[in-house]
Amino acid sequence: MYKELGELFGWLLIGAFACTILNYCMKFINKKWGKKISANDFGKKAMKLFMKIFVRNHRFFGVSTAVLLIAHFAIQFSQFGINLTGFLAAAFIILQVALGIYANLSHKPRKGAWFVTHRLIAILIVFGIAFHLLAPYSLNNAIIKNSSTVVQSTETTSNLARFTKDDLATFNGKNGNAAYVAYKNVVYDVTNNNQWVNGQHNGHHAGSDLTQAISASPHGDKVFKGLPVVGEYIN
Q: Tens of pLDDT along 97-136?
């Protein structure tokens, strides 16, 4: 549940920030082609509507971005700890909101060093969010590939038990059964792990292969560090 809620706040955060960025886009479009677009009734009404939504509500979208950022960060931190790319994107957003509040309270004109900085930070936020969304998959896949090779070569080559899909499914952590999960052909015991109550953790269930889910997660395979290895998983 928390995982899904964290992801929801994350996407809402991106949506709120996108609406904030559209403030600049609409002003640029209005400055460049406003007269041509407003030459007919439909264009005039559309331009007026978009300017009203994205320009007039610019501050509302900015504050919403900050609130959603706090909610997203709190949930993700409680589940996975600090994520470097997420922290970087969050720092840019907080700086942007703080600069906007400062300019508003100080009645700063829309020019000068602060205004240029405000625009540059907006660009950095776009790159920061993109990096946050894409980096975990590429970086974690590289880390997982290297670490799993070490795990398999040092642990699964010994005389450990072998588990098929049906064998693994019996260790679901329910009715007194132990709780095992598989990752990269290695079976780990999560029975006594406080994150796996009744064989469940963030929508995942013991007795299953979590290779795909962990490979796509922001924390990667570090969650298996220190867990007992009980066997080899055979697909």
A: 888 888 888 888 888 888 899 889 989 998 888 887 776 5
Domain ranges of the chain: 2-139, 156-233
Report the 10 Å Cβ neighbour count for 215. Answer: 19
203: left (phi over 0), alpha (psi -120 to 50) or beta: left
Task: Give residue-wise pLDDT tens across range 67-89.
Answer: 998 888 888 777 666 677 888 88
CATH 3.10.120.10 for domain 156-233: yes
- Looking at residue 83, what DSSP letter applies? -
Q: 132, exposed or middle or buried, with CB in 10 Å at 0-12, 13-18, 19+? A: buried
Rounded distance, CA 158 to CA 156, Å? 5
Q: Which residue has the higher pLDDT, 213 or 19?
A: 19
Length of the chain: 235
Helices (DSSP H) in 56-112: which residue ranges? 58-80, 84-106
What residues contact 235, with CB distance under 8 A and at least 6 apart?
165, 185, 209
